[in-house]
Specification:
It contains 16 helices and 6 strands. With 414 residues, the protein is α+β, with helices and mostly antiparallel strands. The longest helix has 21 residues. The chain is globular, with a radius of gyration of 24 Å.
Length: 414
């Protein structure tokens, strides 16, 4: 049940489903040997099982248009992004066997992801365009306020959607004042890159649960002055993440699964996000609006944001017992990787990963100050399916300079 809330429902038939069918056909006791009667019962069981629900995600290399019914003790989970990747390769889009993280971002509404797909010629494929439109219609209402009630996975995707599809990126926004550089191509690329990096983290953290899709074969502050507190002006994103953190905590607590020793981490993260929400709300007020109807950040909020590195360190540091049991050397590094799609035609998988941090410098509106901060670096590339990369292998590739070019930011970084 906790896994169902965190990730989603099982895509394959679960033990209660096929246990009921088994009792109906075999009774309470299975045959003691492979007798003629046992074979007849087994044939009846298979015939009845085939009529049960089929999985939505092709979890193995299947040549059939309709995936076979699958009975699993611990079935992998259906997620919307796996469905998106699967629907945008063959047989749904003939001759396209390797998807891209851009596919997911385009379905979520990223105009810049669509622009990059257009540059690649992907959108010239009428069948791809048709599938993309269908997926947008299918998932139009999934990533909304109710996502927090369904699964933590959907809630995370909702936060990413708010980031990459922010109407302010294209100037289609009312009631908010955004800095002029917000609509620059480089900033749109930065937002998309952040969304892709967060998505790679999501897939990495849920790699043992999420059912993978397959292609079917065929600058410094002034001395003596307080540093200016400036955060990225995306209050909706901070609000979404606050709700996600709260919903995960409440649901796990209700199920007796929340580790109480992690409460201080959750509390600090919520306080940090709330501070960012209050500051960013003030930053985006229309000209002349004093913002009296909005809560203003306190001195503690501003102090927490000035010392954000310390706050984040407190958030990510596990209690000693958990750290000893769960964390390894690779976990202490930011770089991580996950394979998200398998193409048996080429014998390759799509790897998506986060590398070392890059930096972004932006002018703070109304001041001569420049804000400087770290950003995700996102990578995606095909890799032999017989050598699916671990975090350790990926970190070694980065150390040796063997990683491919960064996916989105390469053209903008110096």
């Amino acid at each position: 049940e906790p896994t169902a809330y965190l990730v989603g429902p099982a895509d394959d038939l679960t033990p209660p489903e096929y246990a009921a069918l088994s009792r109906e056909i075999f009774g309470d006791t299975l045959p003691g040997g492979w007798t003629e009667a046992a074979q007849a019962q087994t044939d009846r069981f298979i015939a009845a099982a085939i009529k049960l629900r089929a999985p939505k995600i092709v979890g193995t290399d299947q040549t059939r248009a309709t995936p076979p019914v699958s009975l699993r003790l611990m079935g992998q989970r259906f997620t919307a992004d796996s469905d998106m990747l699967q629907q945008l390769v063959q047989p749904h889009v003939p001759n396209r066997t390797m998807p891209s993280g851009l596919d997911v971002m385009a379905v979520l509404g990223s105009a810049y992801a669509e622009e990059l797909l257009q540059e690649r010629g992907t959108l010239d494929n009428a069948q791809y365009r048709e599938q993309l439109d269908k997926l947008r219609a299918t998932y139009a209402d999934r990533f909304d306020e109710r996502a927090w009630e369904r699964t933590a996975y959907d809630a995370w995707l909702t936060a990413i959607k708010s980031l990459v599809s922010d109407p302010a990126l294209t100037g289609e926004v009312a009631g908010r004042t955004m800095p002029a550089w917000w609509q620059d191509t480089a900033w749109q690329a930065k937002q998309l890159n952040a969304g892709l990096g967060s998505w790679a983290e999501l897939r990495h953290d849920t790699i043992l649960y999420v059912k993978q899709s397959y292609s079917v074969r065929s600058s410094a502050p002034h001395q003596g002055a307080e540093p200016v507190v400036y955060v990225e002006p995306v209050p909706e994103v901070y609000g979404h993440i606050i709700r996600l953190v709260s919903a995960v905590r409440e649901n796990l607590t209700a199920r007796g699964m929340f580790p109480e020793e992690m409460a201080p981490n959750y509390d600090e993260f919520t306080r940090l996000l709330r501070a960012a929400l209050l500051v960013s709300t003030q930053q985006t007020l229309p000209p002349g609006d004093a913002g009296e109807q909005y809560e203003k950040p306190t001195a503690d909020d501003l102090r927490r944001l000035r010392n954000i590195a310390s706050s984040l360190k407190m958030v990510e540091t596990l209690p000693p017992a958990l750290r000893e049991a769960l964390a390894g050397k690779a976990d202490a590094r930011m770089a991580l990787i996950a394979d998200v799609h398998t193409d048996p035609m080429s014998g390759q998988v799509l790897e998506v990963g986060v590398g070392r941090v890059a930096a972004v410098v932006v002018p703070v509106p109304g001041t001569e100050v420049q804000a400087y901060g770290p950003i995700f670096t996102y990578y995606e590339f095909p890799h032999p399916m017989g050598d699916r990369l671990t975090d350790e292998a990926w970190q070694e590739m980065l150390t040796r300079g063997q990683a491919p070019a960064m996916f989105i930011l390469q053209r903008f970084l110096r």
